[in-house]
Task: inverse folding
């Protein structure tokens, strides 16, 4: 399967998807760790996560998918929400909580 | 090695900025970008605009860049202590 199609299927078949370096239990980069921390603090513990370090094709493909060159990337209900900075801003403002409840 | 100055130069040349600061230690960087171009744009669009000025450097050289974006108006309204 084409990697873009694979990503499309992943983000549309799970409500919350995080592309990250490492796993939620063992993040391999500070930004990914921050993203997991934010989701956990909002009570989101069973999100679908993809470790790009063990999926080199996805690691490249995900950058094209949302025209976004960095990891982590958060998707909610199939829509790209942002990376670690945006997640932090939306967490502070309360927007992320709203989006997760929708 | 990637320097904050080189990142700053790319952003400066790639878009119009009212204020721009880039700090970093060679591995982790933080950019504060204030631009009229951000008006009416979503957070994602703002970040994409900044990433665009860095082109392939974002994919190849720069692994950890934190970006904060403001319009001149937002920048004027935020608390002084957040202006790093």
Result:
């Amino acid at each position: 399967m084409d990697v873009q199609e694979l990503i499309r299927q992943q983000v549309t078949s799970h409500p919350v998807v995080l592309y990250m370096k490492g796993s939620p239990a063992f993040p391999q980069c500070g930004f990914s760790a921050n993203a997991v921390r934010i989701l956990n603090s909002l009570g989101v513990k069973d999100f679908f996560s993809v470790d790009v370090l063990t999926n080199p094709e996805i690691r490249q493909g995900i950058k094209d998918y949302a025209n976004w060159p960095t990891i982590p990337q958060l998707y909610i209900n199939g829509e790209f929400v942002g990376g670690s900075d945006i997640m932090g801003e939306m967490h502070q403002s309360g927007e992320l909580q709203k989006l997760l409840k929708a | 090695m990637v320097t904050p100055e080189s990142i700053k130069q790319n952003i400066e040349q790639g878009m119009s900025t009212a204020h721009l600061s880039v700090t970093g230690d060679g591995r982790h960087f933080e950019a504060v970008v204030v631009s009229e171009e951000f008006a009416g744009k979503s957070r994602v669009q703002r970040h994409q605009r900044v990433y665009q000025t860095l082109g392939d450097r974002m994919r190849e050289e720069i692994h950890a860049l934190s970006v904060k974006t403001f319009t001149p108006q937002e920048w004027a309204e935020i608390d002084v202590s957040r202006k790093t």
In short: Residues 4 and 20 of chain A are 17 Å apart (CA to CA). The mean pLDDT of chain A is 96.
